[in-house]
């Protein structure tokens, strides 16, 4: 029988009855995915259930210091002894089963734990709560339901999940519930200064160099409402940077007073321009990204456009300016 609930009751039973679980999450894992996986692995093991974490993509560098992060296996394929040696798949923060990047997970029953509103409940047990600020908060409740006391390390992992998914408790999902869960995690031994240090003070030198290169190109147009920055191939070379070094850069222009949207043009290979769009306020940059074949969220989206950098810049900037009701 399939069950779907915001309550961890059925998930707790399913997990406790398992012999050996395979844990996985969405591609390009974030703090919520990794922190939640590690905490569930501890919960399973404290309940006498073996747990193996297998992700399709690498753990981001700033999450590799999380307690137990070295147990995450990164692979293009499921383990050789799958499915024979397992009896349950636990997907974490994975709104569609395909987003795991693995084929064949459905050979076993799936416990689906997620807070994305569009999750279609593809598991046999679906612990889904779109009102939850982070899957880490849902895992916290799962500990309570199973009746297992989390170690300080597990509390730290769940706190990492919660604090990264709420933007350090600055986003609209930083609800009373988020703060209450955070308080309980800290009482259980989570270390917020340590988490902040791992997550934020762990940048590569190349990414800071590339930030400098990118900010030198800053143009403010559309009556001060649109900021444009670019990192071309020469900038990547001078900074000795790669695609992984571009992450935080786009948020800096967004912090300028009066700026409502930012476009970051990145070119690390000829004739292909990767574009990150950010917004605050009412403009929907997902629509702009979609018009160029991309996607995302209303205030954070992306697309890839082929062509000459200067021409792509002009075209996309004009589209965002139009969405802002202005012009470049
Ligand atoms: Mn999340």
TrEMBL record:
Occurrences of domain DDH (ranges): 20-159
Domain DHHA1: residue ranges: 240-319
Pfam families: DHH, DHHA1
GO MF: nucleic acid binding
InterPro entries: DDH_dom, DHH_sf, DHHA1_dom, Oligoribo/pAp-PDE_c-di-AMP_PDE
Gene3D superfamilies found in the cross-reference section: 3.10.310.30, inorganic pyrophosphatase (n-terminal core) (3.90.1640.10)
Lineage top rank: taxon: Bacteria
Protein name in UniProt: Bifunctional oligoribonuclease/PAP phosphatase NrnA
Organism: Candidatus Sulfomarinibacter kjeldsenii
């Amino acid at each position: 029988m399939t069950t779907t609930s915001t309550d961890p009751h059925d998930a707790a039973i399913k997990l406790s009855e398992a012999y050996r679980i395979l844990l996985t999450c969405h591609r390009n894992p974030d703090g919520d995915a990794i922190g939640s996986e590690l905490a569930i692995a501890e919960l399973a093991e404290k309940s006498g259930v073996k747990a193996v974490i297998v992700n399709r993509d690498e753990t981001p560098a700033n999450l590799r210091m999380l307690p137990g992060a070295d147990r995450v296996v990164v692979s293009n394929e499921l383990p050789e002894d799958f499915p024979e040696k397992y009896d349950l798949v636990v997907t974490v923060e994975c709104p569609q089963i395909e987003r795991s990047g693995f084929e064949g997970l459905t050979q076993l029953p799936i416990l689906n734990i997620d807070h994305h509103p569009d999750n279609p409940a593809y598991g046999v047990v679906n612990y889904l709560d779109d009102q939850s600020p982070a899957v880490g908060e849902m895992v916290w409740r799962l500990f309570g339901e199973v009746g297992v006391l989390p170690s300080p390390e597990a509390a730290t992992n769940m706190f990492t999940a919660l604090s990264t998914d709420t933007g350090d408790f600055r986003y609209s999902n930083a609800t009373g519930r988020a703060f209450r869960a955070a308080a309980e995690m800290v009482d259980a031994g989570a270390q917020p200064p340590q988490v902040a240090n791992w997550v934020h003070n762990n940048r590569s030198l190349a990414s800071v160099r590339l930030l400098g290169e990118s900010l030198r190109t800053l143009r403010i147009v559309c009556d001060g409402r649109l900021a444009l920055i670019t990192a071309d191939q020469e900038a990547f070379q001078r900074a000795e940077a790669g695609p992984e070094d571009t992450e935080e850069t786009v948020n800096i222009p967004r912090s300028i007073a009066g700026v409502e949207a930012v476009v970051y043009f990145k070119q690390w290979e000829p004739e292909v321009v990767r574009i990150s769009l950010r917004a605050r306020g009412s403009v929907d940059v997902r629509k702009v990204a979609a018009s160029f074949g991309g996607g995302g969220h209303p205030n954070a989206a992306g697309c890839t456009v082929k062509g000459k950098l200067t021409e792509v810049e002009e075209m996309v900037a004009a589209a965002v300016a139009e969405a802002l009701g202005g012009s470049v």
